[in-house]
Amino acid sequence: MADMGRAARAAAxxxxxxxxxxxxxxxxxxxxxxRAAKADILAANAAxxxxxxxxxxxxALIDRLTLTPARIEAMAxxxxxxxxxxxxxxxxxxxxxxxxxxxxxxxxVPLGVIGIIYESRPNVTADxxxxxxxxxxxxxxxxxxxxxxxxxxxxxxxxxxxxxxxLPANTVQLVQSADRALVGxxxxxxxxxxxxxxRGGKGLxxxxxxxxxxxxxxxxxxxxxVYIDAAADPVKARAIALNxxxxxxxxxxxxxxxxxxxxxxxxxxxxxxxxxxxGCAVRVAPELxxxxxxxxxxxxxxxxxxxxxxxxxxxxxxxVEGAMAHIAAHGSHHTDSIVTENKATAEAFLAGVxxxxxxxxxxxxxADGGEFGFGAEIGISTGRLHARGPVALEGLTTYKYVxxxxxxxxxx
Amino acid sequence: MADMGRAARAAAxxxxxxxxxxxxxxxxxxxxxxRAAKADILAANAAxxxxxxxxxxxxALIDRLTLTPARIEAMAxxxxxxxxxxxxxxxxxxxxxxxxxxxxxxxxVPLGVIGIIYESRPNVTADxxxxxxxxxxxxxxxxxxxxxxxxxxxxxxxxxxxxxxxLPANTVQLVQSADRALVGxxxxxxxxxxxxxxRGGKGLxxxxxxxxxxxxxxxxxxxxxVYIDAAADPVKARAIALNxxxxxxxxxxxxxxxxxxxxxxxxxxxxxxxxxxxGCAVRVAPELxxxxxxxxxxxxxxxxxxxxxxxxxxxxxxxVEGAMAHIAAHGSHHTDSIVTENKATAEAFLAGVxxxxxxxxxxxxxADGGEFGFGAEIGISTGRLHARGPVALEGLTTYKYVxxxxxxxxxx
Lengths: 412, 412
Description:
With about 400 residues, the first copy, chain A, is α/β, with parallel strands linked by helices. Chain A has helices spanning about 1-15, 20-35, 40-55, 60-65, 70-85, 125-135, 150-165, 180-185, 200-210, 235-245, 270-275, 320-330, 345-350, and strands spanning about 90-95, 105-110, 115-120, 140, 170-175, 195-200, 225-230, 255-260, 280-285, 295, 310-315, 335-340, 355-360, 380, 390, 395-410. Chain A folds into 2 domains: about 1-220, Aldehyde Dehydrogenase, Chain A, domain 1 (3-Layer(aba) Sandwich), CATH 3.40.605.10; about 225-365, 3-Layer(aba) Sandwich (Aldehyde Dehydrogenase, Chain A, domain 2). In chain A, the strands form 4 sheets. Chain A has a 7-stranded parallel beta sheet with strand order 10-9-11-8-7-12-13, with helices on both faces. In chain A, strand 1 and strand 2 (about 105-110) form a beta hairpin. The radius of gyration of chain A is 24 Å and the shape is globular. The relative contact order of chain A is 0.13. Strand 16 of chain A pairs parallel with strand 13 of chain B.
């Protein structure tokens, strides 16, 4: 790991000075080499999948692991999207002149060396590597052991493209061994790795957050709420509640708890019927239990549960203040939405809820870098430092101060 | 510590919503109460100083610990400066609309709860507390045990002002015990404290960085360089080298190593004579040793030494590339300066040196939030995440995304 770290640091110095066109060229060439290596990648992946089946991986994990020609094409097209994103490096964030004539600029620069620890999705090898590169960073990738052959094949193709564009081969490094001790070495790589990004399930992210000596950009839970206010438009309320829960139940932006204003209980039967009809299990507060025989009672644990499944808890709250108190007590600072036609109530919620993303009259399922217009994302941060919410190229940068003078010295 | 953390979190929720005028009023009233409590503060400080003398503290530490009427007035005036700073909270950093009609804003919000761990300077109690408050944060202060009575008296006065302005008494909390286990509790206070800011010597900062489970905003070393290029103006080179080293030798922005271009050795005699005449011990590379009998040879350890004293190491390098290689090998990513009249060389240095602050034709002693026009600073960060360089109010904030819609749901 020390050798990889030093190689990454050397590559990072070259990348920090690389022009946008060269970085984009490297990512586009990587896409081309991935397309050209399709047969190799599929063969490597078939071996991973065969082992996975033999080792009893669940069908869901096998699906995540499996590549198809269409998935490889999507991976390559994703790289081309990244290559077309605006380059954050070199942006002059602020500039000003002090009375002594010194000119100050705050200029965006790459973070340096980024460590990515992920699980069985082979496409992370390509898209995380490309995002780091476009933001001028070197990276060290450590994928799941069950996808190692796939990752190796994808990585080898990417490196061909990177080298063809004149950038260092060590721009994107892959940990080539399945030895779990190497994850520990990454977590402890202070000074070698500037930031770690875990991408995967709760177990992985929690381990990284607990053990890492290197700063971590991570989100643990997406315990997202939709609050239906007394002044909600009934049509919007039904559409948003149904979409926030059921469009995709397994993503971090999916609603897990619906909060209904005590003064909006008249809206509850239609909203809950929509959800039940769509196949959602709905666990409700006592006030709602009689509305439909398919409803079951919620327990206190439900308010703290991220189901990531077709299950919903529903609480009754006393207005927007009650909703904000429930979210402060049980939320995960990820994404929360209010449905109301009352502007003042909406602004109170948007200001008062301490989450990375707060929405008014929109589904929580918009919590996604693509929907924000970022083109891609490396993750959604629920931490408070450095970057919050969907993290794209800009979140993979830092800044420095450039000060230009004409011989100024500081008076004593 | 858990009780203090919960109290701070509750106060932070009030502060996050407090208008600028109320926060400024609280800080101004705190200044007034500090002035009014001058006699109490001086008495408490006299007791701390008497104990310090009895316990054999060095004269330098006793000087740092000692308050005078003038220092108390400076403390109060410093708070009034902070009260007049622009409020970063609520700033709309970016806003845009997506094609589906969703309006996005990235809005600056407070960080939450900030822990400050410091040593014997009593004024940190006032200025760190005020900076946290103005940025909308609650804070927990833990000063050095040798200054505990002084800190208590200052803190009591501040709280009177804060409460008089209608803000929670727990806005600024002081750890009232000298028990060192409480520092450990702060370092482990994940979820209670959002960020720790150690302010003090290397030993303190290193302990906090090594042991903290909470993110740390800190700088360890200021191993700052000035590079004199072949194209340097001789007058500027002499003035900047002398000022960067000798204006104040004990601050983190003081030059520790002077780098002289091999093609600029003709400038060396005058530059080194200025420094020697000013009382600086100068340790030089072999090429320079014959220039003056007062020069002594530098050892390899000198290139990695932060003297914080009237001592300087001087290396000879091969042009700007040699200077950048020396800084990459030995620098601390704090502040480095180039002296040259060649614009292209200057830009190569400004782009290529990976430090929080890079200067052209100016003294490294400008590395200070006040000189940047920030009005105040909580520290100078040499880390790469969240905030870099002088950290003022803006560095004590984060952001959230506010999304306003009209019933949008995400298509599948």
